[in-house]
Known about the structure:
By secondary structure, this protein is α/β, with parallel strands linked by helices. The protein is built from nine helices and eight strands. The strands form four sheets. Strands 1-6 form a two-stranded parallel ribbon. A two-stranded parallel sheet has the order 2-5. Helix 6 (116-122) packs antiparallel against helix 7 (126-138).
Amino acid sequence: MHEARTTGFPATIFRPGQIVGEGWTPITPLANDKAAVFSKMARGKEIVLPNLGLETVNHVHATDISQLIQRAVTNRSVAIGETFNAVSDTALNLRGYAEAIFTWFGLEPKITYVPYEEWMKLQPTPEEAHHSWEHFARSSCLSIEKARRKLGYEPAYSSIASVKESITWLIENGKVEKPKAWK
């Protein structure tokens, strides 16, 4: 960015959130990329979230990233030397995310909360626990106001709409079980 500002080197940085859309497995309410949690939820099984489930994730639909890049290309003079967050306009906390998916599946949410240290021990492997921790420890909730103001960026998808599209694709492609209420 220093070179962009001092010498005119044509650099723009995009910081995407958790990328979703058809063909993508979204970061789940467990803050990992294990689609099996959606199958578990589709069966109406309880999930366990860390702490009070208030950690956040900020998804972005792949087409919204494309929109932001296109806007930067067409507004090059404004974009060079800048950094833009490429996310939807609202992050989801893990609890609200899980509740929304259970409800969308036609089910009552079944969620238990345990302290972080205990939750980490419940994960299948230390690597999976660390992967989840990497997401929820950051608790991403990024602003797109700069991209809106400078480039006219307006995401077409909310976080939950983009996640639902991803899950629908996963169901249609046999990677996640269809919820009983959908049959």
